[in-house]
Design brief:
CATH superfamily of the largest domain: Annexin
CATH architecture of the largest domain: Orthogonal Bundle
Number of domains: 3
Number of strands: 0
CATH topology of the largest domain: Annexin V, domain 1
Distance between the termini: 11 Å
Oligomer: single chain
Number of helices: 20
Strand content: under 5%
Order of helices and strands: HHHHHHHHHHHHHHHHHHHH
Radius of gyration: 21 Å
Helix content: over 70%
């Protein structure tokens, strides 16, 4: 474990994140060091500083850098670096809300399951713009599911009634999508876990299996991913990390590094038998890009 991380441990005891606020924080000094590192294209020091500061601290550094140099920090990073390391450091420099919004827009262009994953933890920022984009990019029951997730409001529901409603929706000649959209997007996670467990007991099969039989296309895939995220979100994230695809790995690690990446790491170890820290070193990641990912991951389990 690196010394800078160790010094931040006491002030953040109990956190489930791996990136923590840096103690004795001096944004003026950080901004000056970053300016020098950018001029020399010194990726080592850029990684050292940016992966050892919380997002809130990085925002202060960016403002200080602008005052000091009259230049935008993100633009300066783009000029000095390239490739996957550039992409990762730029992701660290934006706010969590902006990062989630970027992942949503990327997901609309790439794969529906990434869209659902992003929406499971979506923030309200850019909500109107996202709704407009999503309505233009999706259609049918899948569009209804996505829009409902963005408009999600918690309401009280009776567990047994919801179990019976979902069970009935699967029994007709054609499965009814509306109850799944209404219930899965409007109940809290504890309630939904009880509903899904009760549904499995009532039907005698796993919910994922039932959905796979009765729904198809983007909507069926969206429901499957949503159920996985409700039942065991950390296992789902661990399975996504196992692909070791750069956009997925960077997206998950940046999004969760200050909240619950320790839980994701534990799920990854349990699921694969290998720590995430070790797995990152065994894959295609190299050089300072690898060092940045390891710094965010922090340590072996």
């Amino acid at each position: 474990m690196d010394s800078e991380y160790f010094r931040s441990y006491d002030m953040c005891w109990g956190t489930l994140g791996t990136v923590r606020p840096f103690p004795n924080f001096h944004p003026d000094r950080d901004a000056a060091e970053i300016q020098m590192a950018l001029e020399k294209k010194d990726a080592v020091n850029l990684v050292r500083i940016l992966t050892n500061r919380s997002n809130a601290q990085r925002q202060v550094i960016a403002k200080t850098f602008l005052t000091l140099t009259e230049k935008d920090l993100a633009s300066a990073v783009k000029k000095a670096l390239s490739g996957e390391l550039e992409t990762l450091l730029l992701a660290l420099l934006i706010t969590p809300q902006q990062h989630d919004a970027q992942r949503l827009r990327l997901a609309m262009e790439v794969l529906s399951y990434l869209l659902i994953l992003s929406l499971c933890s979506v923030f309200s920022v850019y909500k109107k713009e996202l709704l407009k984009d999503l309505k233009g990019e999706t259609s049918g029951d899948f569009a209804k599911l996505i829009v409902a997730l963005l408009n999600k409001e918690k309401i009280s529901g009776v567990v047994q009634r919801d179990i019976e409603t979902l069970s009935a929706s699967l029994n007709g000649k054609k499965a009814d999508a509306e109850p799944w959209i209404n219930i899965l997007t409007s109940r809290d996670s504890d309630h939904l876990n009880k509903v899904l467990m009760g549904l499995e007991l009532e039907t005698g099969q796993m919910v994922e299996q039932a959905l796979q039989k009765r729904f198809s296309g983007d909507f069926g895939l969206g429901l499957k991913v949503l159920v996985q995220c409700i039942q065991n979100p950390y296992l789902y994230l661990a399975q996504r990390l196992q692909t070791m695809k750069t956009p997925i790995v960077q997206g998950i690690m940046v999004s969760h590094c200050e909240e619950d990446l320790l839980c994701v790491r534990a799920a990854y170890l349990k699921h694969t038998g290998t720590s995430l820290y070790t797995a990152l070193q065994q894959k295609q990641f190299k050089g300072e890009h690898l060092q940045a990912l390891l710094a965010i991951c922090r340590s072996e389990d």
